[in-house]
Design a protein that fits this description.
The chain is α/β, with parallel strands linked by helices and 248 residues long. The chain is built from eight helices and eleven strands. The strands form three sheets. Strands 4-6-7-8-9-10 form a six-stranded parallel beta sheet. A three-stranded parallel beta sheet has the order 2-3-5. Strands 1-11 form a two-stranded antiparallel ribbon.
Length: 248
């Protein structure tokens, strides 16, 4: 007998108390919240979903987002002041960064001028055009210096969609994978969605984040539903994310 009314499992129902380890809510310093008002609007939308812990990860990307200790600290302090004014003092935010693996990152790494997500975990990303030719060496160097590399949204790098052995090589080198929850929809395209489900099915995803830049992202996130099997896998990964990165 066909089941026409299969139960829908909405991702949003798993996010009560979630620690979002990848979001762009610091105002005015990258392609996320453009100003304080947008940042507060995002945080209020998150709060409705039961999310009140954030690790803010503005881009540090050579030639595009030249963020540093000063720009991140200034935006962070402004946001904290605004949270108080908006009576959102229960919100907890930890400043960090999302590092593009480029020559600037390699320099910061050697200087140990790195802002981890928590502990020694460092969020890194790749260009969507092509990976660095020395990616494996950089991942090894991150580990050698005592940090733990977390690759942001591995499902989105199209150059690996038909070279999935690369994912296993990166895992062997000690790289953790953080999947974007929006990748489970067609938001980034069907190929990304398919790859996200593949990585999830193979047990390669360690953590999840929203990678929220704007209200639209949260509106879409509220609509995503998955199968019972995927829901169960996500529940475990969300628990691992929360246990690893809780900042209360």
């Amino acid at each position: 007998m066909l089941h026409f009314f299969t139960k829908k499992y909405f991702i949003k129902d798993l996010l009560e108390g979630f620690v979002d380890i990848h979001c762009h809510i610091l105002p005015g310093i990258d392609d996320g919240a453009a100003n304080i008002d947008e940042a507060i609007a995002l945080i209020k939308k998150f709060a409705v979903m039961g999310i009140d812990q954030f690790i803010a990860t503005p881009h540090i990307m050579e030639g595009y987002y030249a963020n540093n200790d000063v720009t991140i600290a200034n935006a962070y302090e402004k946001l904290l002041e605004s949270l108080t004014a908006a009576r959102l003092t229960h919100i907890v935010i930890h400043p960090s960064a999302e590092y593009m693996i480029d020559s600037n990152f390699e320099l910061l790494l050697e200087q140990r001028n790195i802002h981890p997500l928590k502990g020694k975990y460092v969020l890194v990303e790749l260009s969507y055009l092509q990976p660095p030719i020395n990616l494996y060496e950089i991942i090894e160097r991150i580990r050698q210096l005592g940090f733990l590399p977390v690759l942001a949204h591995p499902e989105r790098y199209s150059f690996y969609h038909k070279k999935r052995k690369t994912y296993y090589k990166l895992k062997q080198l000690g790289c953790f994978f953080q999947m974007n929850l929006l990748s489970l929809s067609e938001y980034y395209g069907k190929s990304v969605q398919k790859n996200a489900y593949h990585l999830l099915d193979k047990g390669l995803i360690d953590f999840v984040g929203t990678d929220t830049h704007n209200i639209r992202h949260l509106e879409l996130l509220n609509k995503i539903h998955v199968s019972s099997k995927v829901n169960d896998k996500l529940r475990l990964i969300i628990r691992n994310t929360n246990e690893t990165f809780s900042i209360h």
